[in-house]
Amino acid sequence: MTLLLLAAASPLPGLNLHLPGNNSLPWTIVIVLTLITVLPAILISITPMVRLLVVFHFLRQALGTQTAPSNQVLLGLGLMMTWFLMQPVLTQIDQQAVEPYRAGQISGMQALERATAPPKAFMLRYASEKDLELFAAASMVKRPATRADLPLSAVIPAYMLSELKAGFEIGAILFLPFLLVDMVVAAITTSIGMFQLPPVVISTPLKILLFVMVDGWHLLAASLLKSF
């Protein structure tokens, strides 16, 4: 992950990331291109993308619009919000690892070690203690003195579990007002004997209208940003 960040921050013709004992630039390019293929998994694993996509999915299900907004729109919004939220972390990586490496002040391995610190600190900030203990115990590593001493192999899955939990909590709260609209519409249509028209046909436009009237996208984005 950090190797990819370093490569992305450097122009390809001037790329000087070499394997220890191997000064072949073509091999370096092969490794970087291989890492690019796992970029989606890396993006989801160490960024707020998990929480954002879970919340967006719950919102679409609550509105009952099925495919609106489309997956591409929600993914694009999630990517842009993730980029915004991760800017401080990317700035730290650039200052602590990329710039010193470009200046020749540190080696490639030192740059990699420094580049892992900001993302790890970000994940530890939002990973729950219970999830960290679970993976630390399962990995059978020596009990660390502090959270920062945990390996990334334990921090990343713990962070993902914590983000999934947070996303489901926000999604459940988001679902409640729309569920109330569905219940009220269903009760009214049943009481007046309107059995030919499904309640969802009436409740869906009402939920969309309610969401637009309260400026739902702004409120949702503000709530998600404040949760980090």
UniProtKB/TrEMBL annotation:
Pfam families: FliP. It is a multi-pass membrane protein. One of its GO terms (cellular component) is bacterial-type flagellum basal body. The keyword Transmembrane applies. One of its GO terms (biological process) is protein secretion. InterPro entries: FliP, T3SS_IM_P. It is found in: Cell membrane; Bacterial flagellum basal body. Coiled coil: none annotated. The chain crosses the membrane at residues 24-50, 170-194, 206-225. Keywords: Bacterial flagellum, Bacterial flagellum biogenesis, Bacterial flagellum protein export, Cell membrane, Cell projection, Cilium, Flagellum, Membrane, Protein transport, Transmembrane, Transmembrane helix, Transport. Belongs to the FliP/MopC/SpaP family. Plays a role in the flagellum-specific transport system. This is Flagellar biosynthetic protein FliP. It comes from Acidobacterium capsulatum (strain ATCC 51196 / DSM 11244 / BCRC 80197 / JCM 7670 / NBRC 15755 / NCIMB 13165 / 161). The lineage of its organism: Bacteria, Pseudomonadati, Acidobacteriota, Terriglobia, Terriglobales.
